[in-house]
Amino acid sequence: NEIKEKVIACGECPLVVGDEKLLKVHVHTMNPDDILNYARNKGIIKDIIVEDMDLQVQKKQ
């Protein structure tokens, strides 16, 4: 499971669900471009959400 291993290596709170045709991936990372570039090389990606968790915390303080 190469994709799952890559996601685990890229950050925290990794989640990979789906099958050979369609995956949903969630990961907390300081370098979202790394995982997005990896995903682009694996196939079509859509519905991308990148959020700055540090900024969200700052706004709440």
Label this structure with key terms:
2 strands; two-stranded antiparallel sheet; alpha+beta
- What coarse outline follows from CA principal-axis ratios? elongated
* Total number of beta strands: 2
User: How far is the N terminus from the C terminus?
Assistant: 40 Å
- State the helical fraction: 40-55%
- Biggest sheet statistics: 2 strands, antiparallel
Strand content range: 15-25%
Number of helices: 3
Order of helices and strands: HEEHH
Number of separate structural domains: 1
User: Could you give the order of strands across the largest sheet?
Assistant: 1-2
Estimate the mean pLDDT confidence: 92
Q: Flag low-confidence runs.
A: none
Radius of gyration: 13 Å
Structural class: alpha+beta
Q: Could you characterize the architecture of this molecule?
A:
The chain is an alpha+beta fold and 61 residues long. It has one domain (2-60). It is built from three helices and two strands, in the order H-E-E-H-H. Strand 1 (12-18) and strand 2 form a beta hairpin. It is elongated. The model has no long low-confidence stretch (mean pLDDT 92).
Task: List strands and helices in order, with pairings.
Layout lengths: L1 H9 L1 E7 L4 E6 L3 H11 L10 H8 L1
Antiparallel strand pairs: 1-2
Quick take:
The protein has 61 residues and is an alpha+beta fold. Helix content is 46%, strand content 21%. The protein is built from three helices and two strands, in the order H-E-E-H-H.
